[in-house]
Amino acid sequence: MGGPEVEIIPYGARAILLNWPQKIDENTLFQVLNAKKLLSDYYIKQKVYINSAYNSILINYISTINNIYDEILTISELILANNPSESNTFNSLEIPVCYEEKFGIDLQRISDRNNLSVKEIIQLHSSAYYRVYFIGFLPGFLYLGGLDKKLSCPRLETPRQSIPAGSVAIGGDQTGIYPKSSPGGWNIIGRSPVPLFDIKNNPPTVARAGDLIRFVPIDHHQFLDIDARIKAGEYKLQIKPGND
Amino acid sequence: MIEVLKPGILTSIQDKGRFDGLEFGIPVSGAMDQTSMQQANMILGNKAGDAVLEMALLGPKLRFTSPTLISVAGADMSPTVNGEVIEMLHPYPVISGDVLEFKSAAAGCRSYLAVKGGLTSEVILGSRSQYDGITEASCLSKGAIIPYQSLDYLSFPSGSRLKMDRENFTREVLEVFPGPEFNGLSDDQKDKLFRTSFTISHYNNRMAYQLNEELENILSPIITAPVMPGTVQLTPSGKLIILMRDAQTTGGYPRILQLDERAIDRLSQKYEGQFIRFKLY
User: Fold this and answer.
1) N or C terminus: which one in chain A shows less Cβ crowding within 10 Å?
2) What is the ipTM of this complex?
3) Distance, CA of B89 to CA of B71 (rounded, Å)
4) What is the distance between the alpha carbons of residues A158 and A156, in angstroms, rounded to a whole number?
């Protein structure tokens, strides 16, 4: 019995790439996050910075590497010698979303395309748990896995110039929340009053890779109430520690 | 302090870059031309990665409010202090009230101003580099104030001086390594990639440089994966995009090449319409 194969290769003169099989699934994610933890804990941290995505880790060296193959050997030893015995601890959190059509401007489009009522779309979207695979694209943009296939909907042919911060959207097989106002081509189905990224917070994002997220429907009145509490500094997101 | 009288086209505070924010999706940022930034710093005895001002195409007009030493490296923007020309790559003393002015860049397009001890603006996640949504401002605007430690007395380093490679900005060749998806290219594509003289398109900024000439793309998209400054992506329509210091942290286009660090610096000094050629290390 063996785990998935990992390929460790140079990426330019001062970076090393770790590739797991080209798949998006939770088992691959846990392999990636375990290896990332090992690297952060035991690999010389002051000389590297590490970034991960669905099935890969990029180790970037702040200064030049003396011998890239020596480093690859060290990393291979570290990854192969350690069993993921103590697993990472991930949080689980509930993010309030107002799906009213005032915010969910593309609900009708998805409803027409996918033969679902608006009510069914909201029900499907808010009943699933979504796994955070990594954060990329924009500061605080969560790559989420777990969208029900029935909700899959192609991106708009022409992206909108500006989508408000907090917009919850579906693009192809993915769902996500725009952390700040930006151009975008995803179908907007609602809006969350909770800021997903604030550099003044530590950490600046509400979730990290590995965490689980559920969207909780709220009405416009609750949206305004939470928004006011956030502005007054009196709102705290419900975050539950959960072992995976 | 430095008071910004005129901001120039795009002037920002930059340093070696921000490495602690990748897991939150925060770009590395930092000086586009790290070599020039390091030179400006080292002339003053600063640490190579201290915070400097990066100026693009047309420089700013600045007033100093306390004494310090300054130096300028990178593209020549004909700097003057109170109207008097100052030499690049030399320490130069300024006192309260002195006005430093830059014009447009002669060769290259990015110039770097270092101040003794480095600029001391806010540090966020290990860096002072300005970036939208991370630092209070994303670049300098008129009236902005930039802090530094003023000097009680001025002392000049008087040892050897570094010899600078003046041809660095004008060379067309960019040294590259094969990227993770390079091997998926056909021999024909590889041949074309290394034989074409590419021109830099209108779309060039701190985030990425796009090239005008296209390369037929037979590679399928990849599962979104990490990228870094210097990564050359090939889009489905065949466009080549070279990611620069403010690039996003992940991407889904095949990564066909990776620029050498010095090649990123050299490209940073190029602008629309100029030629580049890729050469494998």
Assistant:
1) N
2) 0.88
3) 6
4) 5
CB contact under 8 A, B25 and A208: no
Count the Cβ atoms, other than its own, within 10 Å of residue A234.
9
Domain total in chain A:
2
**Contact between B189 and B225 (Cβ < 8 Å):** no
Rounded to the nearest angstrom, the minimum Cα separation between A180 and chain B is: 9
> Residue A113's domain spans which residues?
89-243
Angle between helices B34-43 and B261-268 (to 10 degrees): 90
Q: Which chain B residues contact residue A20 at CB under 8 A?
A: none
Contact A165, A178 (CB under 8 A): yes
Q: pLDDT (tens digit, 9 = 90+) per residue, A124-146?
A: 999 999 999 999 988 999 999 99
Q: How high is the pLDDT of residue A238?
A: 80
| Length of chain A counted residue by residue | 244
Query: Which residues of chain B neighbour A139 with C-beta distances below 8 Å?
Result: 21, 24-27, 133-134
User: How many beta-carbon pairs below 8 A join chains A and B?
Assistant: 107
Helix axes A107-114, A118-127, angle to 10 degrees: 100
Distance, in Å, from the CA atom of B149 to the CA atom of B119, rounded to the nearest integer, reads 8
Q: Is residue B7 within 8 Å of residue B144, measured between CB atoms? A: yes
> Does the pLDDT value for residue A20 go beyond 60?
yes
DSSP tag of A54: S
Instruction: Tell me if A234 is assigned to some domain.
Output: yes
User: Contact A206/A218 with Cβ under 8 angstroms?
Assistant: no
Q: Ramachandran region of residue B125, left (φ > 0), alpha (ψ -120 to 50) or beta?
A: left
Asked if residue B75 lies in contact with residue B109, where contact means CB atoms within 8 angstroms, the answer is: yes
A74/A101 same-domain check = no
- Residue pLDDT, tens place only, B151-191: 877 666 666 777 777 777 889 999 999 999 999 999 999 99
Single pTM value for the model: 0.92
Find where tokens 């035991």 sit. Answer: A42
End of a domain among A81, A116, A136?
A81
The Cα B275–Cα B171 span in angstroms is: 9
Q: Is residue A2 part of a domain?
A: no
Q: Are residues A179 and A68 in the same domain?
A: no
